[in-house]
Amino acid sequence: MSAPRFRADSGQSSIELIALLPLVLLIGAAIMALLAARSASGEAAAAAQAGAMALIQDADATAAARAALPAPARRRAEIRVRGRRITVTVRPRAQPSFIARALAATAAADAGPEPSP
């Protein structure tokens, strides 16, 4: 009897899996970052709308916009009120700050013209 012959490609699939693993992880991280950016966009739009509604009712627009945001997003939000327009910028939850800045979502809402005295 002769010794069993080893095939030249034994273990090839394991090596290919290990080689592709960083690419799969990178694609997964990119998808997660885009989903976080989409979520930040919705949060910013809702907060801007709430702020504009507060402006219409002569209430504190900044407080209303901040209250409309989920608690974790409040720390990542920037709210600006200029006249009857409110702008809300929310940075998504992303570890590297340069990615969070690049994917920041901004939404604006207008409360209409100044009311007549």
Blueprint of the fold:
Elements: H1 12-56, H2 61-68, H3 71-74, E1 77-82, E2 85-90, H4 97-102, E3 105-110
Antiparallel strand pairs: 1-2, 2-3
Instruction: For the largest sheet, list the strands in their spatial order.
Output: 1-2-3
The count of helical stretches stands at 4
> What is the rounded distance between the termini?
106 Å
Largest sheet: 3 strands, antiparallel
Strand tally = 3
Broad shape: rod-shaped
Helix/strand order, N-terminal first: HHHEEHE
Structural class comes to alpha+beta
Low-confidence stretches: none
Number of domains: 1
Q: Specify Rg, calculated over alpha carbons.
A: 25 Å
Helix content class: 40-55%
What's the pLDDT, averaged over the residues?
Answer: 87
Oligomer: single chain
Q: In percent terms, what proportion of residues is strand?
A: 15-25%
Give an overview of the whole structure:
The protein has 117 residues and is α+β, with helices and mostly antiparallel strands. The protein has one domain. 54% of the residues lie in helices and 15% in strands. The protein is built from four helices and three strands; from the N terminus they run H-H-H-E-E-H-E. The protein has helices at residues 12-56, 61-68, 71-74, 97-102; strands at residues 77-82, 85-90, 105-110. The chain has a three-stranded antiparallel beta sheet, covered by helices on one side. Helix 1 (12-56) packs antiparallel against helix 2 (61-68). The longest helix has 45 residues, at 12-56.
